[in-house]
Give the backbone structure.
Amino acid sequence: MSISFVLSECLSGIGEYNIKPYCEKRWLSLRDEIVWSGSDRIGYSREVRLSDATWKPIGEKIGISFNELGIEFEYEFKILILALYTSGIGEGMPPLKWSTIINGARSLMTIARFLCVKRIHSWIELDKLNNLKTSHYCAEAISYVGANDKPSLCVSINTATKWLKCYGLLGKESLNLISDKFTPIVAAYQINGRKKHPVIPCGVLKKLISKVIYELDLINEIRDEWIRRQSDDIRRIEIGQYKIVNGRYRSICGGGDAAVTAKIGRIRGLVNVLVLAFTGMRDGEALALANDCLVTRESDTGELHYSLLSELTKTTDGSQKVEWVCGEIVSKYLTLISTLNEVVYEKATAIIEYLSSEISDEYLNELQQGLRYKYIFTVNYSLTSCGFYRMNKRPNSAAFNISDFFKIPLNTSDIEQLDRLGCNYKSVAPNNSDRHQPYKVGDYFNFTPHQFRHTFAWFIIANRLGELDDIRYQYKHLWQNMTLVYAQRGFESIGELLNIADEFSEHITSLTVNEIVEASLDGNIAGHGGARFSSRIKEMLGNQVEENVQPHFKDINQLVEFISKNSNDLRGVGHGYCTKAKDCKVKNVADPSHCVYCDGYIATPRHLTYWKSIQLNCEDKIKKIESAPDGVREKLHSFSMVLKSNLEAARVIIEQLDPLRGVDQA
C-alpha cells in the first residue's frame, strides 16, 4: 500500500480536502499500512508504518514522535503530516519540506498535549466548542506552554494553525480566536525580540584564520608519517596481521604516537572553518561536501580558479548542484584532507576485501556506506581502527567546536564593530543563558557555524564585491526581513569601508577602461556599444592624419584617466562589459544574445573564449534537436529558436574579435 491509499481513506472532498473525523474501525484497518520503506543514509533497510510512535521518512535527517498524544490527536496529526508532505496546503500546491512540517507539527503538539489534559481529544472537538470556551482554553494554553518566553514557538504555532484550517480540522472562527491570542506576542517579537545573527568581527576572524592555517600546517608536516603508518597497516591486513574486537578491525600495532592521531583528527574542524569562512555556504551543505568537491580551472591567462560543488536543498524544491567560488587557501587544505581521506578509503576497501567474513554486519555496512558517499568530513583518522562517522551528521568532536578549540578575546575595536552592526550579543539561541547578553572587552567570542555565513554576506556587500541579486540563490529566505539583514549590514558598513572600496573600485575600473581603449584602438572590440565606443575613442584622441584637427587628449593615459572618472556605471558580465549597469533593461538575463545589439554592450578579446564556447554549445544542441524525431522537434521549437539566436550572436562577436576565425566558421 502507499501514502496515497491512506489519504484516499482519510480525506474527503474535492479540491479542498478535509480530514475525516477519527473512526476506530478505519484506524484499525489502516494502522499497519507501510507509508515509507527503503534504505536510509547509513544503508539500513527499514519500514515506517502508520501506527509507529516515531516517524522519519527514508532519506530525511530528523524524525517526529507522537508520544503523549491521545489516539484521536495522533490520527489527525499523522494524516495532516502525510497530506502536507504530498500535497502541501491544498490540491495542486507544492509539497512542504519535511523540516518545515516537523517544526510546525511539533509546535502544534504543545497545544494538543495541553488540550489532552483538559480532556479535549481532537482539533475537531475543539472546533465544536463555543467561542468563549475556545478563547479561554487558548489563554490557558499560552500560560501552559510559556509562550510569552518563547516567541519563536508562537510564530510557528501561528503559521501551523493555518494548516489545520486548510484541512478542515479548525473552522475560520476557531482559527481567528487562536490567532488573536498569539499574534500580539508574534508582533512584539518581530519588532523587539528578533535579533540578527552576530557577524564575526574582522579582527577576530583574521586571528581565527591565522590560527587555523597554523594548525593545518602542523598537520601537513606530520602527514607523511601518518600515511606511512596507515599504509603499513593496509599491508598487514593483506597478509593477515590484525585483530577483530567486538566485530570491528583493530591494528595489532596499537595507536603509536597518540599526538599524531590527535593532531590529524582536528583537520575536519579546521578545514570546515575555512570552507565556511571563504564560501558563505551553510553548515549542513559544507558537511555534505564530497571528497572530490574541489574544481580547478585554468583561465586563458594561466590563472587558476577554484570552486566547490555542493548540493543546495534549503531554498530549492528537491536538491540542486551549486558551485561556490573559493580561494587558493581553501583549495590547498581541501587537497590535504582529501589526500588523507583517500588513504582511509583504501584501508576500508582492504578490510571489506579481506575481513568481510570476520567483521560484524553493522561494521561492514558502515564501511560500505562510507565508501559509497565519501563525505569529506566524516572520516575517522584513527591509527588503531578504521571507520566513518554518521553520514551528513556533525561529529560530536572538539575539533568541530570552534569556541572550545580557539579562545579569542574581544578588544575595544571588536566591540565597537559589533555595536555598529547592531549585533553585540553572545547568543541568539532561544534557550541559551547568554541570549542577547552583550560582550565586554576581554570576553571570548562565541563562534557558531551560521555566523560565518552572515559575515561572508556582509563582507561581499560592504566591499561592493557583489549585490544581493548576485547571491540570491544561496541567500534566499522565506522571511523577507531576514534577507534584508544582509543588505542592511552591507549598507551600514559602506561608510566604514568606503575609502577601501572606492580605491579598489577605481583601480578595477581603470584597468578595465585601459583594456577597452587598447582593444578599441587595435580594432579588437565587439558589440554594438563597442563599435560606438571605438568611433568615439578615435574622435577624442584626434585624427593624426588630418593636421588641422586638434585632439581632445594628448595621449592614451589622459583618455583612460578621463573615462575612468566618468565610468561609475561600468559593470562586468561573463561575456562582456555593460556600461548601463543599474539602468540595464536586461540585467541578469540568461540569454546573452539580448546584449549583443545593445548600445551599452562591449566585448574585448578577453571574452572571446566565452563566445566560442557559446557557439560550440549551441551548434551541438541544434544538431541534436534537428536529428530528433518530428514530435520531439516540435516540442523543442522555442528552445531551438533561442539556441539559433545565441549562435548568431556568438558568430557576430567572434567575427568582430577574431575576423579570420569568424570567416571560417561562417
The CA atoms of residues 175 and 522 lie 72 Å apart. DSSP finds 25 helices and 16 strands in the chain. The mean pLDDT is 76. The chain has three domains: 3-193, 202-403, 501-665.
